[in-house]
Task: structure prediction
Amino acid sequence: MRWLPLLTAIVSVATAGGPRKPPPALPKLVEVERIWGQAPHNAFPDLIRFRDRWYCALREAGAEGASDGALQILTSGDGERWVSAARITSPQGDLRGPKLSIAADGRLMLNAGANYPHTQTLAWFTRDGRTWSEATEIGERNVWLWRVTWQRARAFGIGYSATGRQFARLYISRDGLRYDPLGDELFGNGLASQGSLLFLEDDTALCLLRRDEKGANSQLGSAGPPYRAWKWKDLGLRLGGANLLRLPDGRIIAAGSLDNGDGRMALYWLDPQAGTLKEFLALPSGGDTGGPGLAFEDGLLWISYHSSHEGKAGVYLAKVDLGG
Result:
């Protein structure tokens, strides 16, 4: 059996010099295009795929702080050429922060905040993407229902107060029109505001919540049904206008503008167990930047956002290959 050590050595050398599995590819920016910039200020876009077409809702105004905001709804069949499908105005006030979702009955839903003498969230619905219903007031007066997320035929949203004592609450609706609060306060430690929700396969809800105190970090909350008892983790940084998306393989992406002075839009891997955000890609952006809308289609991550790095604030669409 003297040949055994020699055979072992040969096998070891062959294995060491054999083919090795290449490292996973890193995410990379495939392309980014400015898709809208007709108004003096074009901002806060959201993105969705509806009936084999793309839709992007954004705010048009004379300036970021102007009180003449209108909602522009863009559509595209291929994500390359975008045209206006509708433009929504309010004779009563300024419209802000449009968000898109698909309701339980299959209609496309649009919600936005309206600044009347008071703050009121409004909703519109469409079955074809072009003919929209009249505006319907939803939620409580002076509470901005920021983003609506549908889960098991119910609509959920984080609303935050626009006047007086600042708070954030979780609201639930069975028809997208009437919303009932689940408890008094979602997060009782500080000035909570914008919140994005994501539901996991086991119905656990995740909430990426912004705080408005100077120097305060964004929070990650988690809760199971009936979503009244939340656990919170400090994420160590502050994101503005953040959004969440769960990929088909289970990974979770967060996107938002980093509130550290440089005004850039960035993408992060979110680890809900550890309560961490790991940046993996910064998008071309700067100055006045925000959004973003997120979608995953044909193996690519699609992101709509606004930025003023090329001059006035315009709406951009980026496509990202997430790699291995």
